[in-house]
Amino acid sequence: MASFAATELGLLLPSLSPTPGNSRPTSSPLGPSNKPSVSFSFSLRAPPAATRLTPRNGRVPVAAAGTKHLMGSLTKTDGLKFAVVVARFNEVVTNLLLEGALETFRRYSVDNDDITVVKVPGSFEVPVVAQKLGKSGNFHAIVCIGAVIRGDTTHYDAVANSAASGVLNAGLSSGVPCIFGVLTCDDMDQALNRAGGKAGNKGAEAALTAIEMASLFKHHLPK
Ligand SMILES: Nc1c(NC[C@H](O)[C@H](O)[C@H](O)CO)[nH]c(=O)[nH]c1=O
Ligand SMILES: CC(=O)[C@@H](O)COP(=O)(O)O
């Protein structure tokens, strides 16, 4: 089976996207009200007319006969189990991010019983819990939520960088997708704008990413 890097898949997707539902929410912070209708796991049976690997009409052909393109679905959420690890630091922000995540799970028909929320003191503590939950084998994806807001010292950089690399590590070491829903902002305004304000809700986006990755791992990738 041939696999494709995300960039290659990204180049292909514009030509495969029959509905706007395939893209991330833009105007609404919580995503589309109707569930999108696309799911990709397909192979190309006949060779395309042209398989030249040179740009043509501004687009590089990425498909070749026999290749399989795998992508998670947002529509088949039954049986998918999620954990959400939430930092309590800057709780006014992280509660809004959590609400966004839970609302997205609801919209995409994830059962409440399939969601476990774990609260931790700060973003620095998120990764170790995400890793433990991932290794438990009880979840298909873990959403990691926090809000790191710059103060007067360099502490911000330590916490933000640790959260980012820690969440990445939690995913790699557990083999379960750990989604980075930790805001790293210069001030509270920036954070609130991304927690349901004018820049959307990053918790909602993280939940959407979790659904897609959970589906990819459960239904499409090799065991
Ligand atoms: N300043 C922020 C923190 N700091 C706390 C750390 O996350 C951690 O709890 C502490 O260092 C003990 O290990 N956490 C955030 O989530 N956001 C911040 O802005
Ligand atoms: C990111 C933080 O930990 C932040 O609260 C630190 O603030 P300060 O740099 O003023 O101590």
UniProtKB/TrEMBL annotation:
Start-end of Polar residues biased regions: 22-38
Entry's Gene Ontology cellular component terms: riboflavin synthase complex
Cite the CDD domains for this sequence: Lumazine_synthase-I
Q: Where is this region: Disordered?
A: 15-38
| GO molecular function list | 6,7-dimethyl-8-ribityllumazine synthase activity
Q: Which reaction does it catalyse?
A: (2S)-2-hydroxy-3-oxobutyl phosphate + 5-amino-6-(D-ribitylamino)uracil = 6,7-dimethyl-8-(1-D-ribityl)lumazine + phosphate + 2 H2O + H(+)
- E.C. number: 2.5.1.78
Q: Which InterPro entries match?
A: LS, LS/RS, LS/RS_sf
Superkingdom of origin: Eukaryota
GO biological process terms, semicolon-separated = riboflavin biosynthetic process
Please name the pathway.
Answer: Cofactor biosynthesis; riboflavin biosynthesis; riboflavin from 2-hydroxy-3-oxobutyl phosphate and 5-amino-6-(D-ribitylamino)uracil: step 1/2
What is the similarity comment for this entry? Answer: Belongs to the DMRL synthase family.
Q: What exactly does this protein do?
A: Catalyzes the formation of 6,7-dimethyl-8-ribityllumazine by condensation of 5-amino-6-(D-ribitylamino)uracil with 3,4-dihydroxy-2-butanone 4-phosphate. This is the penultimate step in the biosynthesis of riboflavin.
How does this protein assemble?
A: Oligomer forming an icosahedral capsid.
* PANTHER family reported in the protein's UniProt record: 6,7-DIMETHYL-8-RIBITYLLUMAZINE SYNTHASE (PTHR21058:SF0), 6,7-DIMETHYL-8-RIBITYLLUMAZINE SYNTHASE DMRL SYNTHASE LUMAZINE SYNTHASE (PTHR21058)
NCBIfam families linked: lumazine-synth
- Any idea what this protein is called? 6,7-dimethyl-8-ribityllumazine synthase
